[in-house]
# Entry
Amino acid sequence: MTRLNLIVAASVALACQAFAPAALSSRVVLSAHSRSSGVLQSTAAEPAAAAAAAADTPAGPPPLDPPTSAELKSETGADFLPLANALYAGDFKEADQLTRDLLIFIAGPGARGRKYVYWSEVQFIPTTDLATLEALWLKYSRGKFGYSVQRRAFDVSAKGDFEAFCRKIDWNLMDDGLERKRRWFGADEFVYDLEAATPGHLPLTSALRGVQLIKALLKHPAWDLPQFADSGKGKYEKKSV
# Structure
């Protein structure tokens, strides 16, 4: 090899040694950054596989919008926002209690003073307030819960028979071969899960002072409004009592 060739070979070797550590260092830094940031390096096939899997997964119902001021109308000055927030959060047990509190409020001063509603006071509850309460229940239960849903069960299937109505909306259960009402106080036996509950199961109305209160509620003219015409439709007509 000539002297010129030796000089060229030596220069090439030195150049390789100079660049090799820098390239290696760059790969190490990139790898460390990927681990520390939790970013996984995927192949080109992985995003395609993920997209295909997502396409095969059934889409659930679209998320519901939070309540707006237009949905909280009241003639009595009632604050429907706590109820709306509980329903929006899916806390149906809290919403059930808030509903009873609101009924006392919108029923007037007499009910507020004694802290419960007489059946004879129901007729004086403003339609606006009951419609607001009902619309919130229907919206956030996706049409499964509400007084208008219960009314359809009462009128269409139960034919006005209160015990048949209780069976229809799952307020009764069998206990050692005997039928009884679900317990409300102590060990609560009612169902507050939207998926597990029977249509019309909520809201609850106390019958400790008789069934006149719930019958009066189910007869209120608010349920004749057009927006409630289809409440509970198709959920009871073909089921035997």
Residues 88 and 176 are 37 Å apart (CA to CA). Residues 72-228 form a domain with the Arc Repressor Mutant, subunit A fold (CATH 1.10.10.1770).
